Amino acid sequence: MDVKQPSQLPQETIEKLIRQSHEAKTHAYCVYSKFRVGAAVLTEDDRVFTGCNVENACYNLGICAERTAMSKAVSEGYSNFKAIAIASDLEDQFISPCGGCRQFMREFGTNWEVYLTKLDNSYMMRTVDQLLPISFGPDDLSMKKVIPDEN
Ligand SMILES: [Zn+2]
């Protein structure tokens, strides 16, 4: 079942972003999991940065495709995002971002679009807020708090 919500983006932009996420997947370095993932993030000024998962012999150090793409964008000076598309080789299931990547997305806003795709380019779209409701973000750090006196 494909759930298509109203998007801010033209259909051709969505389809192109999804294609780019599949292209990025071909670079996946996943020698351990053999689970290829690609991502393509679209900035407010319509630039696209892609990423793939990059695993490591020290398993904990592997990084997901979504965080690779977002980090590439941020490191080039772009941190306002409209959308991200995520691609894998799953045939019958939409690839879903892990919890860590949801939090990483949330750092850059709650109301931008995440395209979870299948191998045939079908997709479902969810906002970051829908994927990570009641989230913790940058603003929370400056909220009123009570710090006990140190004696
Ligand atoms: Zn992840």
UniProtKB/TrEMBL annotation:
It is an enzyme of class 3 (hydrolase). It comes from the Eukaryota. It catalyses: 2'-deoxycytidine + H2O + H(+) = 2'-deoxyuridine + NH4(+); cytidine + H2O + H(+) = uridine + NH4(+). Its EC number is 3.5.4.5. The keyword Hydrolase applies. The keyword Metal-binding applies. Zn(2+) binds at residues 64, 98, 101. Keywords: Hydrolase, Metal-binding, Zinc. One of its GO terms (biological process) is nucleobase-containing small molecule metabolic process. Its cofactor is Zn(2+). Residues 12-139 form the CMP/dCMP-type deaminase domain. Belongs to the cytidine and deoxycytidylate deaminase family. This enzyme scavenges exogenous and endogenous cytidine and 2'-deoxycytidine for UMP synthesis. This is Cytidine deaminase. It comes from Cynoglossus semilaevis.
